[in-house]
Amino acid sequence: MCGIAGIIDFNGRPVLQEELEKMTDAIAHRGPDGEGFFIDGVVGFGHRRLAIIDLSETAAQPMTRFGLTITYNGEIYNYIELRSELQKQGIVFTTQSDTEVILAAYHIWGRDCVQRFNGMWAMAIYDAANDEVFLSRDRFGEKPLYYTERNGQFLFCSSVSALLEPHQSPVANAQVLMNYLVQEKAEPLHHTFFSKYCKLDGGQSLIVQVQTGAVQLIQYYEFGSNQQSELCMEEAVSKLQALLHHSVELRLRSDVAVGSTLSGGLDSSYITSIASAFVKSKQAPDFTAFSAGTSEAQTNELPYARLLANHCGIQLNSIIPGINEYKAAIPAVVAAQEEPIQSLSVVMQYTVMQLAHRAGFKVLIDGQGADELFLGYPIHLGIVMRQQSLLRAFKIATQSAGRFSLPAALLAKIGWYHAYPLRKAARQMDRWSSVFSEAALQQVTNHNMQQMENAINQSVQAFQQFDIVSGNLPALLRHEDRNSMAFSIETRLPYLDYRLVEWAVQLPHQQKLHNGWSKYILRKAMQANVPAAIAWRKGKIGFEPPAIDDDITRQWLNPEILRKRGLKLLSGASLQHLSVAMRWRLLSVQLWAEAFDVTFE
What global pTM score does this model have? Predict the structure, then answer.
């Protein structure tokens, strides 16, 4: 794992390298490409490197130029264009790295330089002249950045567990915990599951004044208006193809081999086909994709992955983990994720990263984000139905049933259930009332659900913006980053190029949900690149695990372990009557608490 770490001491005590070494040791589990430290009195930076661009020692971090020092995790994909622009302003570069480009950009443009970056990042820059530290996280939060204040020190890191006090059991954030259990909120804004440990959200920067300890939060990025695109379908398809092709091309910039994850679904198939064609045009070595499947036909997408690989002429490395192998991986996933997770599908993703690591890959492109952009979930159908007359709503459900491989009545029920968040929250509270006391349930907040309700009432586009910023996507990005970084792999997400995101959200929902097809415009765009059996396939699977959730929760969930750690379950409360999803969340909390010795207040 690579990552960054830092300490700012407001008491005027010099930072000790051994303090930084402990933090960087905690974030580096698997063979990073070296480490580095920078200490200037009361400011100290640490870095664990994963060398991707400019593999030389001259590009190692922390790096100092122009009176600025940086420790940084991520990639700025448009660094070549920025480098050229900065050279015209008289900057002379000594490396080929994107890290030096960031320092030059900060030197010329100041804090607003992040507005010019197309990439993912968690960074800290010490400005010695102004005696301040600038911390920043990319627009949508692909790379994590955690922080806390303790004993007169401001500490930050790529890993929240690396910040925990040694020899002291951390305490769970009760509100975050209960919102996760009751409302399925796996990734809150600002807060973490650990009490007193925070994070920067996507699109935020933080200025820390070294002498005074003053901290200023800046929201440097927000979505614009909900103005709707007026392009016809043909024009929109052409625009989508251009944006996505350029996004993939940028994310193939690397001095090491780049592969892809390939589930066999629409999203990963399209970007894999684009990437493989680009690699072939450069006469580079064959492109490689990585996939995982199961022995169960209903959860196995490997046949589609193989179809795409044969169509594109690429290598496909795949794995079908056995049930015992899958179960054995769960503790490692819990440790890597550092906080409770949404579902067991996270474990399947972990096995794909492990497969790529064994093959020696450091960089993968991945299809995360397409469902949020192009309305790929049943909830999106429910939101569209909610805004129609009852007759029109059922017609939409009937049209869509075959495309989702679900009966129309069930699809409508699922969509509507999730499309009324306040009503759903009330039902969830009622279900959990047999497990938790009223006092415990009072810690649940409806703020996020109310925001979601407001967005749905406004428009489909408003909901998409909510979902990307504070809904489903942040949790998926945390799962993605923690799983890949556990194997020192950098995953790059072409669908989250900010230009594509902003444009796609403005598309009218009729171009995304059309004649019963979800992600219709994406299917139209990819049909020239991938087999029709993939572009126009029904149903949605992804890297789904074998159907063993029920067995695992019944075998592993132990309410006494939770009670001993302080979770206030009702006396005699039976957990086995809960749904599998509800039991999984309790088990996820149990495994997390055991892994990090967490107590509940």
Answer: 0.96
